[in-house]
Amino acid sequence: MNFRVGTLRNRTEDKQPARSEPGTRLGLLLTVCCVAQFMVILDLSIVNVALPSIQSDLGFTPVNLQWVVDAYAICFAGFLMLGGRASDRFGPRRMLAAALILFAFSSLAGGAATSQVMLITARSLQGLSGALMAAASLAAIAMSFPQGPARHRAIALWGAMNGAGGAAGALLGGIITQEIGWRWVLLINPPIGVAAAGVAWAVIAETKKKEGAARSFDLPGAFTLTIGQMILVYGIVEAGTHGWGSPFFYVPLIIAIALFVLFGLIEAKWASAPLVPFKAITKPLADANTIVFIFSAALFPMWFVSSLYLQEVLGLSPLNAGLAFFPMAIVIMLTARQAGKLVGMFGLRAVLTSGLVLLASGMLLLARIGPTGSSLGYVVLPGLLVAAGIGLSVVASTIAATQSVQPAQAGLASGLVNTSRQAGGGLGIALLISFATSYTTHQIGQNKPVPDALTAGFRFAYLVAAGLACLAALLAFTLMRSPHAPAAAPRPAGPPAGEPAPEASQPPRAAPAGQGGEPGGKPVPAAQPAGAHPGGAPKSRPVLRLAAVVVGVLAVFAVLDFTVGAKAGPPIGSYLCIRR
User: Fold this and answer.
1) How far from 236 is each of 167, 183, 231, 330, 458, CA to CA, in Å?
2) DSSP helix/strand/coil, 315
3) Is residue 432 within 8 Å of residue 461, measured between CB atoms?
């Protein structure tokens, strides 16, 4: 029997005998997409703890060692848009399966590397395949799940992989490097990648082939945009090493700007089927990407700075430093799982703004670090607040981006939001680490002890990150005012468009009312989408309740941090009987 998972109609055609099997296939589809995204984000961070071992084994100099991380990051950011558009043109089934196989092969090559060039090349291929995986996995979800609560829950699980993969990378990197060697940080990927590719090919529905898809694919625009992004990220990374006045920064910057101008000309005047159709970039999509770019510039450096602080200032082992991030990973997954439901209950603006407020507040508490003290108080406790903000903001911003376009352009939206996330993160790391290094050098020049100087530099980075998160929260509150009103207003007057309850095709505001009655398609929820809640109050009370919860959480964490958080204590690994 032939079952499809691509549309709502496919899943309702074969009611009796086929009902469970499409549901099973959707579950497998969601699982493989989440596994792919987890691997993508995991490999952005998992090698950080292993860098000293890699350096001694392959003879990297301190300057060249950065390319083990940078090669992945630059190629990832550079090829994200190409991956998103390729998913639209050729289908997420082909793209995700091919990307998983390439990721497995490049990981095998990296784990078996015998030279610096071989490892850097393998990491570059990992970044390329990771970009294709990220775009194709989100596109597969957006094209397979109907808009509404089902898609929100799916994107929530996918979004949880973003934060969980980053946090788990430090933990797994420490365990694997300490117990079996750095090469297995990469060698764990091939069997998982091959198996996931097989599942993806089996469960993702084949999309209709478009006539002349390969011919109309905008390769000049794709390569111009990709190379421009790669050169820009390269310049930003080098600025963190050589300084912002160095030609290593401004020469790549000038070249990248020229390539972006050329890309705009190609898309606007010469391309018959542009890679990025500017007319399709709606204001909600542009606003969502702006917010993602800014808060990612605060989020990515947090992991980097916290790892350095734990090891270089507090003297934790790589394993104990990784364990400090484990509670954060759990909180990210728990909050991200609930974020889709919260969006349905309170709306995108309320949930996204709340998440960013939690993120900014956690950064401010992290800025209270000292040269001596407990990792539990200085990093783990504020990190839990940051983690809750990550789970809410990543999921809410992803929903905002993907629901602002038609399903056929889901790959474009996923490519844009992932590009904004990685580009913002790369810029944030370069900016914040450069600021922290300069401030630390200044402190040492004033005869401050090295631990105190390092702590002052890291504290400055946290404060800048908090400012960026506050800016993102302000933009979310102002730019996303009543984002669903225009779409919801005309629908209540007409009858339901299909078999399911109207909530399946409504924006997230209508979702909570149908959360319990959705399967039966009851007529009562159908009268509610226009305003939000019954009784005429347009959701002011629920939003106020959410605001009260956020304020209460902030108050509890502030009291804990200022009373017991900064007291001296053993590293978190000591509670698990792990020796340094």
Assistant:
1) 24, 28, 9, 32, 19
2) coil
3) yes
pLDDT of res. 497: 33
Amino acid at residue number 76: F
Nearest alpha carbon to residue 29 among 141, 159, 156: 141
Q: Rounded CA gap, 126 and 105, in Å?
A: 9
Alpha-carbon distance 570 to 297, whole Å? 31
Reported as a single tens digit per residue, the pLDDT across 170-225 is 778 878 887 888 899 899 999 999 999 999 998 887 765 554 444 456 778 777 87
Helix (H/G/I), strand (E/B), else coil: 487: helix
Q: Judging by beta carbons within 10 Å of its beta carbon (0-12, 13-18, 19+), is residue 465 exposed, middle or buried?
A: buried
- Residue 1's closest CA among 198, 199, 96, 16? 16
Contacts of 275 (CB under 8 A, 6+ apart): 81, 82, 85, 218, 221, 222, 225, 267
**Cα 373-376-380 angle, rounded to 5 deg:** 130
d(CA 276, CA 228): 15
Contact 297, 427 (CB under 8 A): yes
> 505 with 151: CB under 8 angstroms?
no
In sequence order, which ranges of 446-539 are alpha helices (DSSP H)?
Answer: 450-479, 485-488, 511-517, 523-526
Chain-centroid distance of CA 255 in Å reads 28
Residue 373 tokens, joined: 């003290």
Q: Which residues of 201-230 are buried (b: 16+ CB within 10 A; e: fewer)?
A: bebbbebeeeeeeeeebbeebbbbbbebbb
Question: Are the C-beta atoms of residues 510 and 346 closer than 8 Å to each other?
Answer: no
Return the structure tokens found at 144.
């397979």
φ, ψ of residue 50 in degrees (nearest 5): -85, -5
Is the CA virtual torsion 17, 497, 155, 511 positive or negative? Answer: negative
CB 386 within 8 A of CB 358: yes
Displacement of CA 578 from its chain's centroid (Å) = 31
Write out 365-418 in H/E/C secondary structure.
HHCCCCCCCCHHHHHHHHHHHHHHHHHHHHHHHHHHHHCCCCHHHHHHHHHHHH
- Is this structure's pTM higher than 0.85? no
**pLDDT tens digits, 302-332:** 877 887 788 778 888 778 877 888 788 788 8
Q: Packing angle between helix 381-402 and helix 149-179, nearest 10 degrees?
A: 140
**Separation of alpha carbons 464 and 429, rounded Å:** 11
| Number of other CB atoms surrounding residue 332 within 10 Å | 31
Determine the Cα–Cα distance for residues 580 and 375; give it in Å rounded to an integer: 14
Q: CA 203, 204, 205: angle at the middle one, nearest 5?
A: 110
Asked whether the beta carbons of 266 and 218 are under 8 A apart, the reply is yes
The count of residues in the chain is: 580
SS3 521: coil
